[in-house]
Amino acid sequence: MHSQTARTATRLLLAAPLALLFSLSGCLAMVFSAPTTTYVDEGGETVRLDWREFPGNGGLDPQAVLDGPTVETGEARSRLLLTEARDALSERFGGDWTPDEDGGQAGDEWQATSNGYGGDSLLYIFNSPISELEVRVPREDWPEVIAIVEGIAEAHGLTERLDADLEPPLSATTQAATFLLGGEFLDVTVRDSSLDPEALAEAEEFGPFVAGISLFYGVSAIHEADRAEFERRVQPFLGQNAPDITD
After folding, report:
1. In CA terms, which of 121, 179, 187, 188 is 20 to 30 Å from 153?
2. pLDDT in tens, 32-69
3. Gap between the terminal Cα atoms of the chain
4. How far is CA 142 from each of CA 1, 94, 146, 149, 170, rounded to the nearest angstrom?
């Protein structure tokens, strides 16, 4: 974004449907009451589900998790998508990308997460570094930036699109979109802080640059070795509407 604060805000805005943020307070212990679901199965037996035992996350389709990357393949997937998007955008608009071409993180930076109902999940979250291209793109070409990334995302199965609903003054300098499927997503942001005097002043003071394109990849995935356990534990929950996340 045009400043460190704005860049962080947009990143969190786009990632919010797909990654959960958790905080702990040393002064306050919070206890969540996990929701339950009761239904009658095909054999006429009453089944009571405690969503604390759900192995995934309430915001993600379990089948999409099984069909998506694993912890073992997620970083390679990140490098593939980011490399293709960087190359296509550089070919069209020029400029140099930062950080380096690797665009990934070490495996020990996968983060364990909650299932959304106070229980442990088998899912792990991976977020790539932000790749940034220092280049000024005319505002009339911003839709082309989004379209280039959309074509690459769709070619790799990320067929859902979410456009960022940015409010002024951010909307005057920035356009962003997320392409996703299940727990996997690719974000693209194009900005030009010179279009707003205040944004320009912040960009010149805080950097990293006044105008450019940003890419960001994330995924929630299971270990390949946990696939059988995930399928076993999720089976009773299939076909049931997931309650609102409680934590």
Report:
1. 121
2. 578 999 988 888 999 899 999 999 999 999 999 999 99
3. 29
4. 14, 15, 7, 11, 15
- Amino acid identity for residue 38 in this structure: T
Judge contact between 97 and 133, C-beta under 8 A: yes
CA distance 244 to 137: 41
Number of Cβ atoms within 10 Å of the Cβ of 104: 21
User: What residues are paired with 160 via a beta bridge?
Assistant: 180
Position 32 scores a pLDDT of 52
Give Cα 50 to chain centroid, integer Å: 27
The per-residue pLDDT of the chain, averaged, comes to 85
Q: Are strands 160-163 and 131-134 parallel, antiparallel or unpaired?
A: unpaired
What is the CA angle 150-152-155, rounded to 5?
105
Which is nearest to 95 in space by CA: 185, 190, 203, 9? 190
Q: pLDDT tens-digit profile of 120-144?
A: 999 999 999 999 999 999 999 999 9
224: exposed, middle or buried (Cβ count in 10 Å: 0-12, 13-18, 19+): exposed
Amino acid identity of residue 59, one-letter, is G
pTM higher than the cut 0.85: no
Task: Determine the Cα–Cα distance for residues 76 and 99; give it in Å rounded to an integer.
Answer: 17
Question: What is the distance between the alpha carbons of residues 64 and 180, in angstroms, rounded to a whole number?
Answer: 11
Q: How far, CA to CA in Å, does 91 sit from each of 20, 155, 220, 237?
A: 35, 18, 30, 47
Q: Per DSSP, what are the bridge partners of residue 101?
A: none
Rounded Cα distance, 75 and 83, in Å: 12
